[in-house]
Amino acid sequence: VQMVESGGDLVQPGGSLRLSCAASGFAFSSYCMNWVRQAPGKGLEWVSHICGGRAEIVYAESVKGRFTISRDIGKNTLYLQMNNLKPEDAGLYYCVRTAGDIYWGQGTQVTVSS
């Protein structure tokens, strides 16, 4: 199992980013795929998940209406479209596989600053 995140960058408040998580070694649609973030000096915060064959989607209240999670089964890739970014959205974003053995990617850094 391998998961590699990308797409993190420095963006101004109000800007947008799209994160990707390229996964290999397992059937994507059989698991729950999550985005989890960690702001500097703070604990882990779950952001969103997309689960199973029915692609059940849930968002944290802090990102609802601004972030969109999606996946491409054929490419085994998870995405997080982030719009209207705020300084409090900054942090290291991880993709995490759950509903079975838990695996974490290495993370991608998002910085929101003017």
What does this structure look like?
The protein has 114 residues and is mostly beta strands. 0% of the residues lie in helices and 54% in strands. The chain contains no helices and 11 strands. Strands 2, 4, 5, 6, 9, 10 and 11 form a 7-stranded mixed beta sheet that branches. The protein is globular. The N and C termini lie far apart (37 Å). The model has no long low-confidence stretch (mean pLDDT 95).
- Total DSSP helices: 0
Shape: globular
Largest sheet: 7 strands, mixed
Gyration radius from CA atoms, angstroms: 13 Å
- Care to count the β-strands? 11
- Overall mean pLDDT stands at 95
Briefly note the structural class of the backbone: mainly beta
Percent of residues in helical segments?
under 10%
Strand-and-helix sequence, N→C?
Answer: EEEEEEEEEEE
Low-confidence segments, given as residue ranges, are none
Strand coverage percent: over 45%
Task: Give the terminus-to-terminus CA distance.
Answer: 37 Å
Helix and strand layout, with pairings?
Elements: E1 2-6, E2 10-11, E3 17-24, E4 32-38, E5 44-51, E6 56-59, E7 67-72, E8 77-82, E9 91-98, E10 103-104, E11 108-112
Parallel strand pairs: 2-11
Antiparallel strand pairs: 1-3, 3-8, 4-5, 4-9, 5-6, 7-8, 9-10, 9-11
List the main descriptive attributes of the protein structure presented here.
114 residues, mainly beta, seven-stranded mixed beta sheet, 0% helix
Summarize the structure.
The chain is mainly β.
